[in-house]
Amino acid sequence: MSSVWSRRARWGALPAVVVLAAACTSVAPSRVAEPVKVKVFVAAMFEIGQNTGDRAGEFQHWYERYWKNAVPVTVPGALQPVYCNPDGVCGAVLGMGKVNSSSSMQAILTSPKFDFSKTYYVISGVAGTPPSRGTIGEVNWATWLVDYDLGHRWAPEENKAGEPTFMPRKGYEEYRRFKLNPELVGWAMKLSADTPLKDSDSARAYRLRYPQAAARRAPFVGTGTHMTGDTFFHGPGMSNQAQYIAKLYGADDYVITEMEAAAITLVIKRQYGTDRVMSLRGAVNFDQGNPRETTLQHLDPAPGETAGGFAETVQNIELVGSRVVDHIVADWPQWQAGVPPLPAR
């Protein structure tokens, strides 16, 4: 009898315990973390090895400046983690190519871990340049982003001699070109044009293979149209086609060939517009060979025949870009509502 009573007593006490636990749960404070308010987001496309301590790719110098002590934040759908510092500067490696990079950017922008409502973007990486307009080691801010791929193409032998072998495809007018905020480009140049840039003996020697005055210049900071294409095009014919497309779309001179910026910008535009987007590229190769080599020789150079200056260029990109990032963060009260007017000259 005592055994039955004992069981009933224990069962009878259970509801009180459950009620007490539920009450304690209902009054427990919420521990949901507030999203990081991102002031500047730096997007790189690849890193060669680790984020620090080895040969630097596009991300390492940024990482060492802003995120060496940061905890990586994993975002489902993004290629690599996002890093943030206490000042609201965040960054990540998005991946190479239009699909790879834009899908990472989309995942990061829609993550509840971040607040991008007032963010400025620096799309950063290495690139190529035509020898008539740029040089190895230069750093360039985009005025326009143009998609190289959205159109019709055919073989040159199937065309009249000297005529373009490209026709834009209708329906892509809002996707194929982006004019970046001229005020923001103006600020970028004002803050960074006089940045002392790194150079190397190997880059200097390589430039001398080209007769063009622009190709022989020392590294500098400039502006122009960045051409985004998944095709890694080479040769004077393809370079001329890129310039033709830039002019066809009403953009500035084509000066940089890269693989991601227009696609990433489209993702940002659909949610936040493009007024706060910057594209920053450093030239590590020419988009064509010198007069003494064929396009195939340039595309697949013999050992020791590649352009020098890669290590210096990825450092130059961060040296130039960080001037703008640091200024925006330091003067955040003036920048958070939008790009302030440029000071009168």
From TrEMBL:
<protein>
    <submittedName>
        <fullName>Purine nucleoside permease</fullName>
    </submittedName>
</protein>
<dbReference type="Pfam" id="PF06516">
    <property type="entry name" value="NUP"/>
</dbReference>
<dbReference type="InterPro" id="IPR009486">
    <property type="entry name" value="Pur_nuclsid_perm"/>
</dbReference>
<dbReference type="InterPro" id="IPR035994">
    <property type="entry name" value="Nucleoside_phosphorylase_sf"/>
</dbReference>
<keyword id="KW-0732">Signal</keyword>
<feature type="signal peptide">
    <location>
        <begin position="1"/>
        <end position="28"/>
    </location>
</feature>
